[in-house]
Every structure is written in C-alpha cells, then in structure tokens.
Amino acid sequence: MTELDLPMIVTEIAAELAAETERGQVADYIPELARVNPGQFGLALALPDGRVIAAGDTEVPFSIQSVSKVFTLALALGRHGDRVWERVGREPSGDPFNSIVQLEYEKGRPRNPFINAGAIAVTDALLSSYAPREALGEILRFLQYLAGDDDIAIDPAVARSEQETGFRNVALANFMRGYGVLSGEPAKVLGVYFHHCAIAMSVRQLARAGRFLAFDGRLSPHGPRAVSSRMARQINALMLTCGHYDGSGEFAFRVGLPGKSGVGGGILAVAPGQASIGCWSPGLNAVGNSLLASRALERLAERTGWSVFTAR
Ligand SMILES: NC(=O)CC[C@H](N)C(=O)O
Predict the structure, then answer these.
(1) For residues 277 and 161, what is the distance between their CA atoms, to the nearest angstrom?
(2) Does the Cβ of 159 fall within 6 Å of ligand 1?
(3) Per-residue pLDDT tens for 102-126?
(4) Is 90 exposed, middle or buried (0-12, 13-18, 19+ CB in 10 A)?
(5) Residues that bind substrate, according to the entry (predicted)?
(6) Which residues belong to CATH 3.40.710.10 in the chain?
(7) According to the CATH classification, is domain 66-197 in 3.40.710.10?
(8) Does the CB atom of residue 161 touch ligand 1 within 6 A?
(9) Does the structural domain 6-63+201-304 have CATH classification 3.40.710.10?
(10) Measured in Å, how far apart are the chain's first and last C-alpha atoms?
C-alpha cells in the first residue's frame, strides 16, 4: 500500500471546510457558548510516532463539553473498576443527550455513561473517592498527563453559565437521587459535572489526550501505559455505540470510528493503531453534534481508508 500523505489530506480537508457556508447552529442553551464564532474549524491527528499533523484553528481552546465524559469514565473505571456498571448501563439510548424519559422506566439507571444522566452518575462515582475540588484537580491532571501539556484549564465563564441555566441537568440529578442511583448531594455532583464540561482544550491537545484510546491504553505503541488495554477497548466500544447520542448509528455508518462529541462542537475520534483525532467546529447539527467536524471525519475516513470495520 502506498504511504498516505497525511499532511496533504489534513490540509485539504481543513481548506474545504473553512469554505463551507452552511455551518450548523452553535449551542445557545448555554449562553456563554452562544457567543462562539461559528466560522472556526480545526483538525489534528496524533500519530504513533509522536507527530501531530494539524490544520486550521489548531491552537484555539474550545469548550470540550461532553468529550470530557470519556476522561471522567476512564478515571472512574480506574478507581472503581466494574462497580461503575452498577449505576450506569452500556446501551445506546436512541434519545437526545439531555433526555429524561428512559430514567423513569429504568429505575433511575441511565442507559450509558455518555448521555448527561450517565455522565452525572459517573461523576457521582468519582465523588465517592474525592472531594469536589480534588476530583476536578484529578480530572485536569489526568488530561494534562495524557496530552503532555500543562496548559489545560477550566473556563470559569462557561462553568458559571451552565450552572445558571442547567435546569434539565438539575432535574436528571434529582431524579437519579430519588432512585438512590446518585449517592451524593445533587448540587455537589452537578458542580463538578458542570466544571469538567467547561474544560477548554485545542484540537491539538485533544488529539494528544486521546492517544491512549488509539494505542491500546498507551500514549504511543510502546510508550507509557495510561489505562489497561481492556479498558481502552471498552471505552472505544462505548464511543462507537453511544458517543453521538441519537446520532451514534449515523456517525458509525458514515465515519466508522469510535467518536465522542460535545456541544462545544468538538469531536474526539479514534482510528485504532493509526491516530487519535481531534476535530472542532462550533456549529451543531439537529442532534447536537458538530456538523462540520462530523463531515471532516467522514472525509478523513474516506481518504485514509481508516475504519474499525475494514481489514487492514
Ligand atoms: N452534549 C453535551 O456536550 C452536553 C454537555 C453539557 N454540559 C450539558 O450538560 O448539557
């Protein structure tokens, strides 16, 4: 097989998407996110040899929002192992990320760790080992370690904005507390949840932070281990089946790689053995996933041949 010209592929995709006029809608239910300029686009690939290939707005920090759920899940699994699954399931929900409807039928146990209810339950699990401030410190340190970059922080304006308007998340947390699925006080759990969603990172940092998922739990194929290979495999499976909420089937069909989106417009995608991919464009499609980042990843998968469904 001929060697892929990744710098050219990445540059071309970034140029094509910068020129798009239809860019989706920025999330406006979190007022601070409504102010983000939808004209931005960035794509970064972290490769097995340590190189990062990037184009577009590669250094602009954006709100990672639900992409943070991948990292809190990894931390909670590392801390509590399979006991995490006592409070959250592993099935796609087929419902929007902030839906409450299944919770009543299913006795307050969220379908998976990537919908809001599930991620709030995972944050609650973390709080059985850490005080709120400590938990946020652990999450940030974990991301800094994974990305090899200390310059990753919480955006306080986004956290505040969400704290002031996150009524639906308050409902989800109280509902789960009513069923005993949350053990902590809802306000405390939500405080940590809102703050980890408000972490800001660039696509370069995100691509580097996701390397452990592309390389069997290690930061590079023969590098230091961050999580077990079993855990990396399991998180990838959940990203593929649940990472885009009720758009997960469509993303798997079009892109064919595990991915996790956030309403800030970011997507972390994983091409096992090949690359960890950070992509960002703030405008969202109808189900709350980045319109142009999804499109970019579809083109990247087509042009590289990367897919978890293809023999290589
Ligand atoms: N899909 C998302 O990124 C949602 C996360 C956001 N912080 C919320 O709770 O609504």
Answers:
(1) 28
(2) no
(3) 999 999 999 999 999 999 999 999 9
(4) middle
(5) 66, 116, 162, 169, 193, 245, 263
(6) 6-63+201-304, 66-197
(7) yes
(8) no
(9) yes
(10) 10
